[in-house]
Amino acid sequence: VRTLWSCPNCDAQAVTYSTRLPHHNCPHIPGLMSPLIKAGVRAKVEAVEREDYIGDELVQLDANGRPIMSVITTRDDGQDCAIYAPTATGG
Ligand SMILES: [Zn+2]
Q1: What are 17-41's pLDDT values in tens digits?
Q2: 36 C-alpha vs ligand 1 centroid, how far in Å?
Q3: Which pLDDT score is estimated for 54?
Q4: Is the N or the C terminus of the chain less surrounded, counting Cβ atoms within 10 Å?
Q5: pLDDT digit string (tens) for 35-87?
Q6: 55 Cα: distance to centroid of ligand 1 (angstroms)
């Protein structure tokens, strides 16, 4: 299935032939990979800064040095959240 994706925050677009969600290095969220949104779907993608004390933990920083906790995708039908927790092993 051919799927067209685009970014609500910049000009990035992608075409995929699988159900895998494409990511890109968005200038709006520098230094982190943000998800693309299916073309035609109204959505908002935003980075959430970590607000708790960081200490010695290794955290994910964006290109501006802000500690980013998660990237949230908000659609009309729900939310996706990619969490950059220090203990996360990815997935
Ligand atoms: Zn983008």
Answers
A1: 987 889 999 998 888 889 999 998 9
A2: 7
A3: 62
A4: C
A5: 999 998 999 999 888 776 666 667 778 888 888 888 899 988 888 888 776 65
A6: 30
The three-state secondary structure class of 31 is coil
Tell me whether strands 3-6 and 68-75 are parallel, antiparallel or unpaired.
unpaired
Which tokens go with 33?
A: 């990979």
Helix (H, G, I), strand (E, B) or coil at 60: coil
> How many angstroms does the Cα of residue 51 sit away from the middle of ligand 1?
24
Q: How many CB atoms lie within 10 A of CB 91?
A: 4
How far, in Å, is the centroid of ligand 1 from the Cα of 29?
8
pTM: 0.72
Provide CB contacts within 8 A for 22, sequence distance 6+: 5, 14, 16, 35, 36
Q: How far is the CA of 17 from the centre of ligand 1 (A)?
A: 20
CA 70 – ligand 1 centroid, Å: 16
